[in-house]
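Hi both,

Apologies for the delay on this - the queue was longer than expected. I finally got the flavin-adenine dinucleotide-bound model through. Below you'll find the protein sequence and the ligand SMILES exactly as submitted, and right after that the structure tokens for the full complex including the ligand.
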Amino acid sequence: MAVDYDLVVIGGGSAGLVVASAGAQLKAKVVLIEKEPKLGGDCLHYGCVPSKSLIHAARVAYDVKQADRFGIYTQLQEIKLTEALNHVHQVIDTIQHHDSVERFESLGVEVIFGSGQFSDPKTFTINGRQLKARNFVIATGSHPALPPISGLQPAGYLTNMNVFKLQARPAALAVIGAGPIGCELGQAFHRLGSEVTLISSRDQIMPKEDPEAAAVVQQQLEAEGIRILYGQRAEKVEVIDGRKHLWTNQGEHLVVDEILLSTGQVPNVDSLNLQAAAVEVGKEGIKVNEKLQTTNPNIYAAGDVIGGYQFTHVAGYEAAVVLQNALFLPTKKADYRVIPWATFTEPELARVGLTEAEARSRYDDVYVLKQAFSGVDRALAEAAGLGFAKIITRSNGDILGAHIVGPAAGELIHEVVLAMSQNLKVDALTGIHVYPTLAEVTSKAALQLKKQKYAENDFLQNFLQKFFEFRRSVA
Ligand SMILES: Cc1cc2nc3c(=O)[nH]c(=O)nc-3n(C[C@H](O)[C@H](O)[C@H](O)COP(=O)(O)OP(=O)(O)OC[C@H]3O[C@@H](n4cnc5c(N)ncnc54)[C@H](O)[C@@H]3O)c2cc1C
Ligand SMILES: NC(=O)c1ccc[n+]([C@@H]2O[C@H](COP(=O)([O-])OP(=O)(O)OC[C@H]3O[C@@H](n4cnc5c(N)ncnc54)[C@H](O)[C@@H]3O)[C@@H](O)[C@H]2O)c1
């Protein structure tokens, strides 16, 4: 049976845009469907871009407040949240040009706005049209989870979907959930003048991270004045005299002006009629195999909608895997061995590969190579000596993972990412680094393997001692 398209891509965000543009440039006939009136998805409109833009404004405010450390005395007169948010929206508008319909159409992609659904395993119906394609790609992303908190709905709450449209700064803000969204936005709002309480369901913030690295961020958040409630869950909310009263399961009672939810993301699958297409959904999202085929092999899925690593760069990587499999032979498997990510708090926290605990559960010969930023001259020059780099290796120098918490951690991690992706030994990171740079933290950490092994090797130390004694005696 002939079909109209090579690819129907559903969802115009990080994953869908890569599949659609690259597919069209490879001369496939591609249609892209987006339910919102703009392309770009969460990352551009409600996620990475607005959050990082607001974090930058917040950092400027913090630096101004801290300037007296360097003998610079200035008075911070006022912080206007709405003007900080203007910066956020200007950045979105600038990037939007790159994700414009015109640009995609000029690449040869047909763009349809609307919300459709599968009518059978080979047909997607939208705006009264039946689109038949050789392959489909579901890239519909995710939306914020709504935890079962009594009274939350009527009291009203913020999520990443509406927080960047606030018209006034909340004097007091409760942030429910201490994952990356809660920590990044909690610190940003606090620096912009809100009194912030972060509710962490665990006894540590950012539970997916190396505990020692997360503790450094935790220490900084608390030092700045953010209150963190540990091992507590928000349970009940009530509006009394115009303010939001929140109770936790430990009986803690907060009175705030706004509540920000950051309790995880849920895949966008409900309106697609996936049953008609024989596409199954699991606990985390659409079920896929290693080639990112759903339970219907002609339908692929990528990005947040399949759960797993919910990051823009992972969505882009999965899009590339899908593109190759859907347009050519389905032989490419997604490989998640070297996936980096960073949380853009200050200090930043970046990670790639295994944690120390994960590494020790798999191997007996694990080495932990650690270098504090307090031993990196450039970090001291910039008064940013908090944090460390930790590289996890095996005895033979194989790199299993790395965790960097400190200045520019999100940039610095890439040297380790390159080494891991190319299967280089940790020694490759000890090459000459420019002095004084923050990147020395990686080379100094990497050098620790040789140092630790030498410290363990009594035989070599004794041998060298005797060798030099002998040489002195015959000189
Ligand atoms: C506050 C926040 C900060 C973040 N910061 C970072 C960061 O710094 N770095 C990072 O790597 N990641 C970050 N992320 C995660 C990142 O935004 C997501 O992982 C990424 O956007 C996922 O891409 P996607 O293509 O799967 O989904 P999206 O980019 O959300 O795209 C999905 C698209 O599908 C559309 N859609 C949904 N349903 C339908 C339907 N039925 N029909 C048609 N279209 C539909 C949506 O409107 C959307 O345009 C952040 C997320 C949040 C919430
Ligand atoms: N810098 C980045 O790359 C970045 C930034 C922000 C978000 N993201 C992505 O967005 C995704 C979602 O982020 P997130 O922070 O919402 O999710 P998350 O799942 O990482 O963290 C949510 C936290 O909220 C807790 N929680 C759930 N219900 C609670 C309750 N009732 N009370 C208190 N705590 C509760 C959970 O236990 C969890 O620790 C992340 O997985 C990440 O991939 C990435």
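Main takeaway for now: The first helix runs from residue 14 to 25.

I'll put the files on the shared drive as well.

H.
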